[in-house]
Amino acid sequence: MKLEKIVDLLNLKPLSDYNKDLNVLGAYTSDLLSDVIANAKEDRLWITLHGHQNVVAVALLKDLAGVIITGEHYATNDMLKKAKEMEVAVFKTELDSFDISGKLYQLLNNDEE
Amino acid sequence: MRLDFTIISDDFFAAGAASARIKKSLQQVGIPTSLVRRISVAVYEAEMNIVIHAYSGKISLELAREKVRIVVEDEGPGIEDIQLAMQEGYSTASEEARRQGFGAGMGLPNINRAADKFEIESTVDVGTKLVMEFNL
User: What would the DSSP string read from start to end of chain B?
Assistant: First the structure.
């Protein structure tokens, strides 16, 4: 599903520029950076509560579709600066990680049918 | 091609710069994407190990005809029990590092998985040296 459609349907707030036409293949939910490095795959969204610059480095490394920061967690200015510099898409949702993961799962699975 | 980087301890902002640069350079010379990703993962984990655990360190990459060889050398506390450190889940990362999502105890295992060849030497109170090789 196109990233633009996901952003629109899940009401994600973009915190950086993003490629609207990118085809998102899935998502990965985790707050351990090395776990994401080991297991997340390219063109997937990363759902996490972390909002610091190392998240951008990992997302770039793994060619992820973008990062969704959840719940009562917010991106630091350092993170946003780095996201702009590295061209990594960052979004914010007020939902917690469970809820946004569930919604995204439903959205992507229904899209396949 | 040869690339050298100096890594400074506790510099969480600059962390990731070496792996990002290496990723870009390898892409530019036409190394396949999946291999570039494996190399950048290994370099990133090594870079973060220096930031989290050591005082300072150096990363050097050499691109030869058949392989990419990366040597990571740090001055730091060293690793007492390498076998234990290679075990997934074992970590001595600080509270600050853990707050940022590090300290899963997966750094060295991730490097081992990514590289075709991986060697580690360490002397307590002196430092640690990693040598990784990736076949082209």
Answer: -EEEEEEETT-TTTTTHHHHHHHHHHHHTT--HHHHHHHHHHHHHHHHHHHHH-SEEEEEEEE-SSEEEEEEEEESS--S-HHHHTSTT-----HHHHHTT--SS-HHHHHHHH-SEEEEEEETTTEEEEEEEEE-
